[in-house]
Amino acid sequence: MADTTFDYETTLEACARRDERAFQALYNQEAGQMLGLAITLLGRRDQAEDCVHDAFVLIWRNAARFQRTLGSGRAWIHSILRYRALNQLRSRGRTVELDDDFIERAADDSLQAADLLEQQSEQRQLRRCLQGIERNRRHPILLAFYRGLTHDQIAARLATPLGTIKGRIRAGLRALQECLHP
């Protein structure tokens, strides 16, 4: 579990000033957890290690782009890892086969961890809003977000017509937007 006293935002701002000690502290704080997440997403340790390495290179190069007003530093670095992993999967034309319930558990676990570690009202509200969306709308959204699946892939995976999937995603995102911004 991550250290709840670690100041991600200040550390990223120091990285933007090219503070190598701050970068090393960030690496020491998050590399293990990021590797575990990458292994889960990619299914292979060697690919996950490459992905984490690439993510940290991007974090170092792009630290100046981090804006604390837009969200937590920890969420920012994990989003870089997630997009790097999804790009790696797409470039290889494959996805990791996981049961559909894993997606729901992973989303809940990630949101619970974020709630405990970050204690930000937006994250609590997002979790509450996601839980309020019907499963048949929430599930395709989570498959798209956590797995990076296209609408076609989601339709095939759920054995549901493409138009229905698109409609459910649109309706789910609309409900999520209305919940987040009443």
UniProtKB/TrEMBL annotation:
What SUPFAM superfamilies has UniProt attached to this entry?
Sigma2 domain of RNA polymerase sigma factors, Sigma3 and sigma4 domains of RNA polymerase sigma factors
**Listed Pfam families:** Sigma70_r2, Sigma70_r4_2
Question: Which keywords does UniProt give here?
Answer: Sigma factor, Transcription, Transcription regulation
- RNA polymerase sigma factor 70 region 4 type domain location is 124-176
InterPro entries attached to this UniProt entry = RNA_pol_sigma-70-like (IPR039425), RNA_pol_sigma-70_dom (IPR014284), RNA_pol_sigma70_r2 (IPR007627), RNA_pol_sigma70_r4_t2 (IPR013249), RNA_pol_sigma_r2 (IPR013325), RNA_pol_sigma_r3/r4-like (IPR013324), WH-like_DNA-bd_sf (IPR036388)
Report domain RNA polymerase sigma-70 region positions: 26-95
Give the family, as the similarity comment puts it: Belongs to the sigma-70 factor family. ECF subfamily.
Sorted alphabetically, which PANTHER family does this protein's record hold? RNA POLYMERASE ECF-TYPE SIGMA FACTO, RNA POLYMERASE SIGMA FACTOR SIGZ
Protein name per the record: RNA polymerase sigma-70 factor, ECF subfamily
Organism field: Pseudomonas cuatrocienegasensis
Upper lineage is:
Bacteria, Pseudomonadati, Pseudomonadota, Gammaproteobacteria, Pseudomonadales
